[in-house]
Amino acid sequence: MSDPASNAPAIETRGLTKRFGTRTAVDGVDLLVPRACAFGFLGPNGAGKTTMIRMLLGLTGASDGEMSLLGYPVPAQRGVALRRVGAIVEDPRFHTHLTGRENLRVVAAVRGPEAEARIAPALARVGLSERADDKVRRYSLGMRQRLGVARCLLADPQLLILDEPTNGLDPGGIQEFREMIRALVEQEGRTVFLSSHLLDEVEKICDAAAIVDRGTVLTQGPIAELAGGGARHELIVGVDDAETALDVLAGADTVLEAHRSDEGLRVVLAFGPDTAAEINALLVSAGLAVTRLEPVRHSLEHRFLEITSRLDAPAEEVRA
Ligand code: ATP
């Protein structure tokens, strides 16, 4: 399919805003989703994720701001854009008395022979080839979700937009879903934009993410940068004599701060992770036995909680 805007980002929004009366559900969002990646739109319940997706798909109008899908401005060229986009906003519905394959045939019959030819590859891609001739009423929730994606694939979309796709799935279902998304991105070069309130999942499935809270995007970028961004470079150090080690570290240029912790000494590096070897050499040359030297990993979850400043928030506020 020729695409006049193939270099444009998959999704771009500027100042996108949605107000419901006096409540602002999405508040001046600038979002940039590159092509051929899995992008997580991550935020707690009520953060504005569904509203954002509904605006992108033209299901509800924006109060303010601009947006484009695959380089096509929306809503001006919504029709052209949406022909290249597949979306699942609510639980996908099927004829449960028909098989998975029959359900796809019903859709393909409307779309034409190209869609018909995509049925088998789509079922294979979502891992349903072997169960394709079972009735959908015998499918698990995870299988229905994947059949929903197969249905989207009949249109050969460049961009898939999925609202909380792993909600309610068991760990096995999540794992299968994750493998499917990775294959869509890595083997087929599609872009997958998915919303989630599950941090761990976004960290595992996505290449990049935006963290959204109360209608505002707080930060966005590659997962590794979000997890580590702004974090200090810290080491956990195990030694046979903590007192002497603290004295030695207090005089080192490469150390910003060192203190005891439950796990050993916690050392904040002044110049980044490469200086860990110097810390080791310093301690060893002072006659100390170093039993552990380990960088502190900042998970996206920690970063997410840090960013939304909810680590110390009362439970009611976290739920609000
Ligand atoms: P959840 O995962 O709980 O659905 P979400 O991040 O998708 O959360 P939204 O559903 O987009 O959040 O809701 C964002 C805010 O906008 C909420 O405060 C919600 O109550 C409000 N909101 C959403 N739709 C409407 C509507 N049609 N009318 C009024 N307020 C709405």
Care to count the β-strands?
Answer: 14
CATH architecture designation of the largest domain? 3-Layer(aba) Sandwich
Broad shape: elongated
Bound molecules: adenosine-5'-triphosphate
For the record, what is the CATH homologous superfamily label of the largest domain?
A: P-loop containing nucleotide triphosphate hydrolases
The helix/strand series, from N terminus to C terminus, equals EEEHEEHEHHHHEHEHEEHEHEEHEHH
CATH class division of the largest domain = Alpha Beta
Structural class: alpha/beta
Beta content: 25-35%
- Show unreliable segments: 311-320
Total helical segments = 13
Named CATH topology of the largest domain: Rossmann fold
Mean pLDDT: 88
Radius of gyration: 24 Å
Q: If strands are numbered along the chain, what order do they take across the biggest sheet?
A: 6-7-8-3-9-10
> Number of domains in the coordinates?
2
Distance between the termini: 45 Å
Largest sheet data: 6 strands, mixed
Q: Which range best describes the helical content: under 10%, 10-25%, 25-40%, 40-55%, 55-70% or over 70%?
A: 25-40%
